[in-house]
Amino acid sequence: MDFELTEEQQALVELVDRILGDHCGNERLAELEKEARGSGLGSVHDAQAWRALAAAGAIGALLPEPDGGDLGVLGLALLAESAGRHTAYIPVVAAIALGVLPLARFGGHDDLVAEVAAGTRLITAALEEPGEPATLATTARRDGDTYVIDGAKTMVPYGDLADSVLIPAALDGRPALFLVPRSALTATPLLTTGLQPYADLDLEAATVPESALVARGGDALDWLRDLGELTLAAEASGVCAEAVGMTARYTSTRKQFGEPIASFQAVAQRAAGAHIDAQVLRLTTLRAAWLLDDESRGGDTAERAEVSAEVAVAKFHAGDAGSRVLHAAQHLHGGIGVDTDYPLHRYFVRGKQIEQTLGTATRQLLRIGAHLAE
User: Residue 242: how many CA atoms within 13 Å on its side-chain side?
Assistant: First the structure.
């Protein structure tokens, strides 16, 4: 596999890094967090950075041709990785992985896709429910020329801010995806570890038109979940890469006994282990992104079950290796590593949020084991 970026992919990375570098410095992020605490629950959404990305065409570049730049899933992974490096408070997972790319794939909502790409609308998907992860308890039934949906969803990214939500529900005993306006459901905002907006959603006889049915079948839901998990893994890759870089810079300048602590064998070994873990996470994420991108374009490189297993491998490392990287970074920083005025804490809590979202490392191991047992 060739891990070299194409000119278009490299241009996307440089564009996103430049925009987020301008908007996501430590002082500005701290100010956003302070404003969020003072004005309400405390969740942070950087609307200014999001609009800047949209205006620069970074979101549209991921969409299929002829309206988009066709950078697809690999482009999304690179964008999410950059968002992780800057710990940006932007809805990459919600609005792109769980929103605009699925709508573009399944079709039928071109105007909404264009509005999300322009930064004027937000959509997300509600993939988690109370109870067993594999159970789809939310139901939908046909009622004349409408559908009526009943159920509850939990931990929905941007669930309280999105204009519409993709809702998985059991229709005639099979999974289906419905696009539901937020006005048709009840959203309860949540304060999470990473401070990004999440919400619980209640649907009590939510009525939507026929056009709200976006896709049918388990494959559509599996693909949507895989795309969300892959994007979280890519964001974790960026988080870990920058945490390792911060640690390398700190240990190279922090001195004890007149020598940089990076020259101490124990410090060097711990840092080297973190670097290796970060590289493993990035490479498994790029492989999963490549396979998912090929599948999304109609390729036959791998079967659906294999692609899903590779996504699980990447998400496993996001939780397992990612946790080791971030703990090592904090320990090697000493006391300053737990100072909330120092930016490293933001990487730690973002990594912990990713680890717990859409399946922990243990859940991913169960998926991988089930695939190997087939």
Answer: 23
Q: How many whole angstroms separate alpha carbon 200 and alpha carbon 155?
A: 6
**Cα–Cα distances in Å, from 253 out to 64, 263, 304?**
46, 10, 48
CA distance 93 to 75: 13
DSSP letter for each residue of 259-324: EEGGGSHHHHHHHHHHHHHHHHHHHHHHHHHHHHHHHHTT--SS-HHHHHHHHHHHHHHHHHHHHH
CA gap 63, 70 in Å, rounded: 5
User: Quick one: DSSP state of residue 185?
Assistant: S
pLDDT in single tens digits along all 374 residues of the chain: 566 888 999 999 999 999 999 999 999 999 999 999 998 888 999 999 999 999 999 999 999 988 888 999 999 999 999 999 999 999 999 999 999 999 999 988 999 999 999 999 999 999 999 877 678 999 999 999 999 999 999 999 999 999 999 999 999 989 999 999 999 999 999 999 999 999 999 999 999 999 999 999 999 999 999 999 999 999 999 999 999 999 999 988 887 888 887 878 898 999 999 999 999 999 999 999 999 999 888 888 778 889 999 999 999 999 999 999 999 999 999 888 888 889 999 999 999 999 999 989 999 999 999 989 98
The architecture CATH gives domain 125-216: Beta Barrel (2.40)
Of the chain, the end-to-end C-alpha distance in Å amounts to 26
According to CATH, where is 1.10.540.10 located in the chain?
A: 7-121
Beta strand 164-171 with 174-181: parallel, antiparallel or unpaired? antiparallel
Q: Which two tokens stand for residue 178?
A: 């419905």
Mapping DSSP onto H, E and C, the string for 207-269 reads EEEHHHEEEECHHHHHHHHHHHHHHHHHHHHHHHHHHHHHHHHHHHHCEECCEEHHHCHHHHH
CATH 3.40.50.12780 for domain 7-121: no
Kindly report whether the global pTM for this prediction surpasses the value 0.90: yes
Neighbours of 186 (CB within 10 A): 13
Q: Check: CATH 1.20.140.10 for 218-373?
A: yes
Q: Other CB atoms closer than 10 Å to residue 99's CB: what's the count?
A: 30
DSSP string, 130-154: SS-TT----EEEEETTEEEEEEEEE
